[in-house]
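Ticket #4471: structure output looks truncated?

Reporter: J.K.
Steps to reproduce: submitted the chain below (479 residues) through the standard prediction queue, then opened the result file.
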Amino acid sequence: MNAEEEGIRGDPRETERQHIEDYFAHATIVTTEPEQIIIMCNIDQSVATAQLPEKTVKATLHDSQGPLRRRLLWPMISAAWFVAAFPLGVHFHSSRLFVCAAIVGAFVAALARVLLPRASPRLATLRCRTGAVRIRGAGLLNDTLRAKDVVGATTARFGERFVLSLALGRRVHPLQLELDSLDDVKIVCEALGVGHHGYGAVSFDLEVRAIDVAETTARVLFAALLLALSIFVVGDITDDWVTFPFLLALVSTVLVALLWGLRSYKRPTLVLRGDAMHVGEETRWKGIHYESVSAIETTPTHIVLRSAVDTHAIPAKPVWWLRDGMSARERELLVAQIDTAVRRAHGKSAFKDDSSQALAPLRRGSMSVAQWLVHLDGIAATANGGAGYRGGITFGTDELRRTFEDPDAEPELRAAAGRVLSKLSPAEARLRVGPVLETIRDESVRKRIAILLDDDAERAEREIDEHERRHLDRAVRRL
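Returned output as attached by the reporter:
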């Protein structure tokens, strides 16, 4: 067996290791910290990149609900009482002890929302890295925000500070961060893949209605009834193992039905989108375009938006205990975000430097995949040629880098900018590929960009054609 055959039949891990070593032989070493080197390998390609260093930012955190573990604190305590009720009754041979333990569990479950009020603002430390922001120093509000969990984001100036509101897929209420400087905002946004223009839509529960007060009252009344039942049990009214559990089950059923009916009523909601805000509940919505708003005023119970032809009074009475609705500070933050959106629509806010016009030659247009790849590689070769670059192309690596990293840019243009950048400046591209891919939420876009960065044009063409075919098939099946 010759050496070539031995290499083919040898340990595949050794072959992969040699492949990686060959790849790094032509790479520029940008850090001496081994824990900052990340290698992503698959059958088609290997990408080497340096993980961007973690950045720390101070912020005031507004999170009325908190992460899941905080919301489940009292329900878990209630469940523990229910689980312990039967063993306690059997161990001590006491029906009263069994019933009392079960009643305590139901008592805690009934008052869970009352016993756990809305979380107060916390000064927190944000540890930002590619694709995630870890919230630390906030006690039970500590959490990890991942780019893929963000379904909406908006930023605004708030006095001398800035506010970033994040809608998370697993939360009902948005999480809001007060940050000291625009640089801090950029650090957090870059970590989560949020662009200059924000992302998606952010919804706010405007106020606590009478129906919410009725729900809380029902919970308190039910807890009082449970307390009375426990007094009867302790007072040795009966030793029957059937009567009290039956009564408890009956009352619990009535409560669950009542609470379910109360929660079916929707609270007034305000949704901030890119071009307009929407106010309403369920199917009754009113759209208000930002450019139509001429003035914003606040009263103790409303946010008033005035325009040339109409006045919109949005109910927004602050709350201090219940987790629903907004606190006084959160209402101020919402007003600041509406004001920033209105100013932006009226052209009074700074606009982002847009490089898309300069990169227009990179667009695919009506070209096939093969023609487009040849076109992009030709532009890269021309740019490396000196005279041709200055004579016909009006962009450089700075514009390519900004577009490749810009979450607001068109996916096609980002992919094209990444391919040309990888040809012009391979070392710089290696540093940026990993962070960019980690902050892209759309799996289809992430896959397309990763394919287009492959140096092998024929393989990239084949995989893009296959990717587009699968994407079209899925679209047809949804029709």
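Triage note (M.O.): checked the attachment and the full token line is present. Residues 256 and 394 are 67 Å apart (CA to CA).
Status: closed, working as intended.
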